[in-house]
Design a protein that fits this description.
This protein is an alpha+beta fold. The protein has 7 helices and 6 strands; from the N terminus they run αβαβααβααβαββ. The protein starts with 17 loop residues before the first helix and ends in a 25-residue tail after the last strand. The chain binds flavin mononucleotide.
């Protein structure tokens, strides 16, 4: 297992392999249709990626990320049922009515996930050991930012090992149902559901994004 301090090749300026890192950062896509539901995922690779994820920061160094990994087929089916009860009709409708091609493609892909979710071999639910209802902005932002960067690192680590996932949140509309299924205490907040599998092929492309200059201000909002 990789531990803190794992070493990477560096050039003479001390830089890590920038092309490889940039490829990882720009091609970690939402993977749904290319999740290989036929290939088992080893417990070790999940633990390795979670270990890397816990290098992410937490507010006050609380290290209060918690991960619930679900491999049990009945529990995955139950989670998929809850997810689909929130999302299936909504996504199918959105997929058939979206006017813009890219949006329609995203909804079609999301609708595809509803059909295979139960079969995706691993469901990972990143959690934070606190609740955020009604807390001041600084506390809420600290809580979310103490788990979401770690969960994203988990997805990056998966990608580097030939696995993929997609950030999903729909089941959170019925968070308590999933909490009861998995015995997650009421003091804990789930932040996402990450269905994990090896990917079918590993060639993913950067997505279309606006030029960063159009969304960046310098020295004040809207200033260039
Ligand atoms: C906060 C958040 C919530 C999301 N929720 C869902 C979801 O419930 N179901 C789903 O299929 N995709 C979900 N997505 C994935 C987005 O649709 C996807 O990231 C987006 O279309 C861009 O695709 P890309 O990540 O490949 O660039 C979510 C993404 C984010 C960041």
């Amino acid at each position: 297992m990789l531990t803190a301090g794992g070493s990477a090749d560096r050039d003479r300026h001390g830089r890590v392999d920038i092309p490889t890192v940039d490829e990882l950062l720009s091609t970690t896509r939402a993977v749904r249709k290319r999740l290989d539901v036929t290939r088992p995922v080893e417990r070790g690779v999940i633990l390795e990626c979670l270990q890397l994820a816990t290098q992410a920061p937490t507010a006050s160094n609380n290290q209060d990320w918690r991960w619930v990994v679900v491999t049990d087929a009945d529990k995955r089916a139950a989670i998929a049922e809850i997810y689909n009860s929130v999302g299936e009709q909504y996504l199918a409708h959105a997929a058939s009515t979206a006017e813009d091609t890219q949006t329609r493609r995203v909804y079609q892909s999301a609708a595809t996930l509803t059909a295979i979710l139960a079969d995706v071999p691993v469901h990972v639910i990143p959690c934070i050991e606190k609740r955020v209802e009604g807390v001041p902005l600084v506390a809420a932002a600290s809580a979310w930012a103490s788990i979401i960067p770690a969960a994203w690192s988990f997805l990056l680590a998966l990608r580097s090992r030939g696995l993929g996932s997609v950030w999903t949140t729909l089941h959170l509309a019925k968070e308590r149902e999933v909490a009861e299924l998995l015995g997650i205490p009421q003091t804990v907040t789930q932040v996402a559901l990450l269905p994990v599998a090896y990917t079918i092929g590993t060639d993913f492309k950067p997505a279309a994004r606006p030029p960063v200059q159009t969304i960046t201000s310098w020295n004040g909002w809207g200033l260039s």
